[in-house]
């Protein structure tokens, strides 16, 4: 029975889009697949998968086809994140939030998005303290090939987290991704707060110096 559930979980996960967006209410695509296989979770909680994804999951699981749960969001065209580099303060918070290592950068250095790797999950938006990240149309379809690549990137990241920090791939541990032993002026809350405050002040100063149109 356990082996059957494991196989079913893998088959369900293979049908999910692997955006790792958490809109379904789970930390990533795999936990949602596990919930469907093991707990009969509803198959209509994946906005990126849309109606086609629901139909595929219904055919596999035997659940009835149903409309996408509006509480999870709506199905939209694929997007990619874009960072306004002149306003980026190099806080690394977006890097820590990205589930597929699609953002390059370092502490106090501007960051940039690898658009071909970005899944459009938009998890980088909320942590950004200066709102310099925008989601733009990807101008592409989200294909099974892209989903497979995203799954590999997510799994590689999860393995790195486990190895470096002895953490799983949960939402909480995801925020530790790429985190060095001393990040953002160490883990000391006051030094961390001061570091971000200084970076914010510098960003505001740069904006104030820009000519207005």
Question: Low-confidence spans: pLDDT under 50, at least 5 residues?
Answer: 172-187
Overall pLDDT score = 84
Radius of gyration: 19 Å
Termini distance? Answer: 66 Å
Shape descriptor: elongated
CATH level 1 class label of the largest domain: Alpha Beta
**Portion in beta strands:** 5-15%
Structural class based on helices, strands and sheet pairing: mainly alpha
Strand order of the largest sheet: 1-4
- Strand segment tally: 4
Please tell me the CATH architecture of the largest domain by its name.
Answer: 2-Layer Sandwich
The helical percent reads 40-55%
What is the ordering of alpha helices and beta strands? HHHEHEEEHHH
Tally of distinct domains? 2
Give a quick account of the main beta sheet: strands, pairing sense, barrel closure.
Answer: 2 strands, antiparallel
CATH topology of the largest domain: Alpha-Beta Plaits
Q: Helix tally?
A: 7
Describe the structure.
The chain has 213 residues and is mainly alpha-helical. The protein is 42% helix and 9% strand. The protein folds into two domains: 2-72, Orthogonal Bundle (3-methyladenine DNA Glycosylase II, Chain A, domain 3), CATH 1.10.15.40; 79-201, Alpha-Beta Plaits, CATH 3.30.70. The strands form two sheets. Strands 1-4 form a two-stranded antiparallel ribbon. Strands 2-3 form a two-stranded antiparallel sheet. The protein has helices at residues 2-15, 29-39, 50-61, 93-97, 144-165, 171-174, 189-209, and strands spanning 79-83, 103-106, 109-113, 133-137. The model is unreliable at 172-187 (pLDDT under 50). It is elongated, with a radius of gyration of 19 Å.
């Amino acid at each position: 029975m356990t082996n059957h559930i494991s196989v079913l979980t893998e088959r369900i996960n293979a049908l999910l889009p692997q955006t790792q967006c958490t809109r379904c209410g789970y930390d990533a695509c795999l936990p949602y697949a596990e919930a469907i296989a093991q707990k009969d979770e509803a198959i209509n909680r994946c906005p990126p998968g849309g109606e086609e994804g629901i139909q595929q999951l219904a055919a596999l699981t035997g659940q009835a086809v149903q409309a996408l749960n509006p509480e999870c969001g709506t199905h939209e065209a694929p997007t990619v994140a874009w960072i306004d580099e002149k306003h980026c303060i190099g806080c690394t918070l977006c890097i820590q939030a990205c589930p597929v290592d699609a953002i390059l950068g370092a502490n106090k250095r501007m960051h940039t998005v690898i658009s071909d790797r970005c899944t459009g999950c938009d998890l980088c938006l909320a942590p950004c303290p200066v709102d310099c990240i925008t989601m733009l149309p990807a101008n592409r379809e989200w294909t099974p090939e892209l989903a497979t690549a995203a799954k590999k990137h997510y799994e590689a990241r999860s393995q790195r987290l486990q190895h470096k920090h002895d953490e799983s791939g949960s939402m909480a541990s995801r925020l530790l991704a790429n985190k060095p032993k001393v990040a953002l002026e160490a883990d000391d809350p006051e030094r961390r707060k001061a570091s971000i405050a200084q970076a914010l002040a510098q960003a505001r100063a740069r904006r104030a110096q820009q000519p207005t149109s």
